[in-house]
Design brief:
Elements: H1 7-11, E1 30-34, H2 39-54, E2 63-68, H3 74-88, H4 95-102, E3 105-109, H5 115-132, E4 138-142, H6 149-158, E5 170-175, H7 182-193, E6 201-204, H8 211-221, E7 235-243, H9 252-255, H10 259-277, H11 286-298, E8 300-301, H12 306-309, E9 310-316, E10 318-320, E11 323-325, E12 343-350, E13 360-365, E14 372-379, E15 399-405, E16 409-417, E17 425-433, H13 434-437, H14 445-455, H15 464-483, E18 488-491, H16 498-506
Parallel strand pairs: 1-2, 1-4, 2-3, 4-5, 5-6, 7-13, 9-18
Antiparallel strand pairs: 7-14, 8-12, 9-12, 10-11, 12-13, 14-15, 15-16, 16-17
The structure holds 6-O-phosphono-beta-D-glucopyranose (BG6).
6-O-phosphono-beta-D-glucopyranose binds near residues 244, 263, 264 and 373.
Length: about 525
Amino acid sequence: MTLTAPAEVLLNPLRDPQDRRLPRIAGPCGMVIFGVTGDLSRKKVMPAIYDLANRGLLPPGFGLVGFARRDWADQDFTQIVHDSVKQHSRTPFREEVWQQMASGFRFVPGDFADDVAFEQLRETIQELDRERGTGGNHAFYLAIPPSFFPDVVSQLKEHGLSQPDTGSWRRVVVEKPFGHDLESARKLNAIISEVFPPESVFRIDHYLGKETVQNILALRFANQLFEPVWNSNYVDHVQITMAEDIGIGSRAGYYDGIGAARDVIQNHLVQLMALIAMEEPVSFDAHSLRVEKQKVLRSLRTPSRLDLHTSRGQYTAGWAGGQKVPGYLQEEDIPRSSTTETFAAIRLDIDTRRWAGVPFYLRTGKRLGRRVTEVAVMFKRAPHLPFDAAETEELGQNALVIRVQPDEGVTVRFGAKVPGTAMEIRDVNMDFAYGGTFVESSPEAYERLVLDVLLGDPPLFPQLEEVELSWQMLDPIIDYWADHGKPDPYESGTWGPRSAVEMLARDGRVWRRP
Ligand code: BG6
């Protein structure tokens, strides 16, 4: 099949017409961001849009509209985007790309209850359609706290912004956390679905946009090597760790009352778990993936002994990166009596033939020893070792570790003979590192996800059912914690509270020290 290059490709000499990414270039469109002054917009979304433009994946007439309660003109908004791009973009700054892009920036001042502002937004979008050929195709990115979603989506409806004309599209992008429990997630969805049909709602879980997370599917389903041992006959347990060395920084307003389990277990870690545990999908289209992920989530068993199989903690003062850091309760704007957990670990079981008896341990925390996210599939020991016990003293369990970040790659750990006259066996690692293998650096998760929104490509966006099922699993744990005192303290820079160590020790296991 010969691909005809779109006009914008022909205009851009940096593009190779044989480039296999051609079908993945966004057509005429624009994006409206609500919450342009927030961290998410400045550090992730705007830089990602620039990186996409720089890689030639956006149409030259792309329009970007900022909406916020600020007394700004288009130039002020342009300056904000400029600063954020300069500071946070992955790819180098190129003046000609910037100029082309910046000519499509518009700013609409107003708050979410302001009818006049939404009228102005409608006119701005029409003007972009006329002047830049955005074709009536617009995505509304809600980079705002969920409490404002109802106001914004109903305003979009009132002002005729949510309804596309024939042949064009309107989409809404919402960030996690989608609700703070099952009930609120359902309510939120009811509000959004009154305005946008399900196929126009894109829920972002940025972990699904990470290359290494997508590589889980490649690793499992493109190879013959791993799948035969990917089950309870060979796997002892799985550890999924998302550790951060940072504290909550300036995010007190968001984080306090939310905590580690709602912030990342309900979404990122449960999604990682689903990709590790699911059966092979018929294809990688959204429906087939969803079906398989949902089967895993439906088979999840929340522990019956929440006192034994969960742990939560809160960091106290300590050290991070050689610097003395305050405890959570001393952070700015955190109430001194807060019981919000900054560390959470839970054991989950999956009631399927493949995973019966194989616990999945999920843990996450702020102010831990270092920043690392990994999935470690820990294998059973060989059923028989024909060696003297002393010779295998240093032999651990075989492991396959998917290093999500940093130092992206995969490690296989197995036993090897130590050189010498004795038969001494010790663990060694075999490594694949993205950095050493591929020339091109991995795109940021938001690049992939923003592009998928503009292309209307849904596989990497969790569906409502997945969100509901993961709240269903988490709600009893969070309720239990709420009724049972405070989180256990752990010193900043360590690997979490004692209760987390004890939780695994009871099962005869230990956490990996990444
Ligand atoms: C976000 C959480 O979803 O993920 C943050 O709200 C967390 O608390 C962040 O810091 C981590 O993302 P990443 O991509 O740096 O691992």
